[in-house]
Model the fold of this input.
Amino acid sequence: MAKRIRIIIVEDDKEIRELAEGILSSEKDMEVVKTFPNGEIFLKSWVNYECDVVLMDINMPGKNGIECVGEAKPKKPQVQFLISTVFENPQYIFQALCNGATGYMLKNNTADKLVAAVREIASGGSPMSANIARLVVDSFSRKQTAEIHNELLTSREKEILDLLAQGLMYKEIASKKEIGVETVRKHVYNIYEKLQVNSRTEAINKVYGKQL
Amino acid sequence: MAKRIRIIIVEDDKEIRELAEGILSSEKDMEVVKTFPNGEIFLKSWVNYECDVVLMDINMPGKNGIECVGEAKPKKPQVQFLISTVFENPQYIFQALCNGATGYMLKNNTADKLVAAVREIASGGSPMSANIARLVVDSFSRKQTAEIHNELLTSREKEILDLLAQGLMYKEIASKKEIGVETVRKHVYNIYEKLQVNSRTEAINKVYGKQL
DNA sequence: ACAGAAATACCACTTAAGTAGTAGAGAAAT
DNA sequence: ATTTCTCTACTACTTAAGTGGTATTTCTGT
Done:
């Protein structure tokens, strides 16, 4: 609690920008070190400012907030990006998280919520709504996977597929399962037929899905 | 709000089990339909009980809570699994989420927190602590990826690797990038050398990481 | 007891992937 | 200016993966 949270604000709407700056500046454990009116200007000079949290608008003319995070985060990974958005569009949020954002908050929130979100992200949390949290968590679970996994493939085939996904060669799978290589080959053939793919990588992508 | 939340409790410790049952039953919008003293018994007969939320202990003799979720969730995907644990071990939590749990809560919490977590999970949220939320979110971002991605491979190699990961054949990559197949082959060879792998799947697993 | 599904095994073949070099053109850094 | 890096392209070869069959056993449900 000794150090103040240093904040950069990126927001094209002058009114909102100044409002946010006012709210955050008036907290005694926070400090707005710089504000930017759009993504391009931000990207050019933000590395020169020491900060802990970047409050990033998602809808901006020119480069949008998601792209900005994607470009900026790798340069200073310790800085946390808090996305600020009007709409809780799961598509956007997801993409932003994948690009390196750590949380987000809705614009039409109270000042308290904004302050709380900044504190949460600065102290190691990931502010987000219950709905988005659920979406994020669900993307972990092999739910869609389970459908294919359970209804299409036999349990033996599932085992083989798991080993395939680990990158093992047929002969390694064969010795691990104590069956012949030709049997593995046959299983794989059947798996591919059921999944309607024709390579290991396609099968993996189909069943284990890819994030995003 | 019309329907009550129907709950199943799986917990080996009799005292805790009955305490939890008492707490949840006394809420007027909740109903404990059944309790189980261990995972095996639960797995055998839980499908016969209509429920919305399963409160699952993670540390149980015999089959642990994570395994139980993994086996049970696919059978009734609409049921939400709330993990109950003493220690906030990220390893466990992650695995549980991957296996289909939707949230978790610490045992040494107040009755209020338990009730709140159940309500949150039943209403579409994913109760978890700020720390775990952060871990979950971070796992989305291509942070570790970025290291290899940025420091080891050239930008051209990154592009090729992306296409490899999509399961394209060399000739497809070649035509997409408008270069020769042999060039693709060379790039791939170099990529594998840098990553110290010898197959497409290994490279993908190494760079894009695997969840879990 | 029997039908059907699943796992096992084998064969013959084609195609793709991976290994290991050399080498030139162009860009970037020294 | 010269070195170094990257991308490009080629040859030659080996190994793994994928295709498409047949056939036997074993298990499960009727």
